[in-house]
């Protein structure tokens, strides 16, 4: 699997974690690759922002 595929999967996994209500500290990419961790966190934050209610 190529790096781009891995980053897409990491981002999707981060989004799924946010939707499932798991904490952000639950990232599976802690020690292996900082770029995969960044992709996971980006997916998590993007999904979390979409789930948040709109502020007036």
Mean pLDDT: 89
Q: Can you tell me the residue ranges where pLDDT is under 50 for at least 5 consecutive residues?
A: none
Number of helices: 2
Kindly, what is the distance between the CA atoms of the first and last residues, rounded to a whole number of angstroms?
44 Å
Strand fraction equals: under 5%
Round the Cα radius of gyration to an integer and report it.
12 Å
Structural class: mainly alpha
Shape estimate: elongated
Order of SSEs: HH
Strands, total number: 0
* Biggest sheet features: none
What helical percentage do the residues reach?
55-70%
Write the SSE topology:
Elements: H1 3-20, H2 34-51
Helix pairs in contact: 1-2
Task: Give your account of this protein's structure.
- The protein is mostly helical.
- The protein contains two helices and no strands.
- Helix 1 packs parallel to helix 2 (34-51).
């Amino acid at each position: 699997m190529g790096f781009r595929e891995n980053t897409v999967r990491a981002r999707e996994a981060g989004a799924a974690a946010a939707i499932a209500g798991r904490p952000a500290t639950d990232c599976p990419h802690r020690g292996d690759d900082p770029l995969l961790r960044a992709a996971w966190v980006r997916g998590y934050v993007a999904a979390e922002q979409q789930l948040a209610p709109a502020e007036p």
